[in-house]
Amino acid sequence: MSAVLPQGPAAWHEPDDGKRWPVATLAALLLEIALIAAVAWWSSRPAPPPPPPPIQIVLEAPKPAPKTVAPPVPKPPEPKPIPKPVVKPQPKPIVHNVRPKPVQPPPPQPAPEPTPKVQAPPAPAPDTHPAMPVAAPTPPAPPPPPAPPAPDVASIKATFEAELRSAIQAAVHYPQAARLMQLTGKTLVGFDFRDGVASNLRVVTSSGADLLDKAAMDAVRNAPYPATPKELQGKTLAFTIWVRFHLSDS
Fold first, then answer.
1. Which residue stretches does the UniProt record annotate as biased composition, category Pro residues (predicted)?
2. What is the pTM of this model?
3. Measured between alpha carbons, how far is 118 from 84 in angstroms, rounded to an integer?
4. What is the DSSP letter of 181?
5. Sheet containing strand 185-194, strands side by side
6. Coil, strand, or helix at residue 136?
7. DSSP category for residue 231
8. Pairwise CA distance, residues 223 & 168, whole Å
9. Residues 86-107: pLDDT tens digits?
10. 245 strand-pairing partners
């Protein structure tokens, strides 16, 4: 009869042990791969450059300043001995025995002559005759009046020409036929003038209408001219004057 050995307690197994094992294996594998990649990356890095050699700074002790040697002071020259002045013996004065001369009295001066008295001449007797009247000096003649300025002939002629133009324009007789035909314009008439008489009449610039040109010539011929200025009298003057025709003129 075989004896039955008592069995010990069975090992404890959790129900998820079969699932934890692959997870742990996978985590260990990933950790190993990460370590291998880190080692490979670290070995592939270029070696860092060596550090620069240390700079050696040598401090030299300051050199002592060179001693300046003062130049030798020259000795002052020895003064020359001053020669003693030689004193010459003065000669003894010679004494002469001089006798004093006798003093003579001054000669007597002559007495002054008396000064003659000068008598003044007698005063002249007063003139009893009446004095002759003295003619008064003739006053100088007054200076002549200044000559009048020379007349400005050009200015006088321009003023007289304006008066002629007004007289001619006032003497214009507008032709009735030209008024009916509504003719307007201006005619430049040239003429010679001497002492109130117009001559050598001519049309310099036509108005384009014979009726107006003939009326302009008649106005120059029949105008009552003003008096000729004294500066222009006796002279033949040439004038050219515009004669205008407007329907508004009477």
1. 63-92, 102-127, 136-151
2. 0.41
3. 84
4. T
5. 197-205, 185-194, 237-245
6. coil
7. G
8. 5
9. 777 676 766 656 566 666 666 6
10. 185
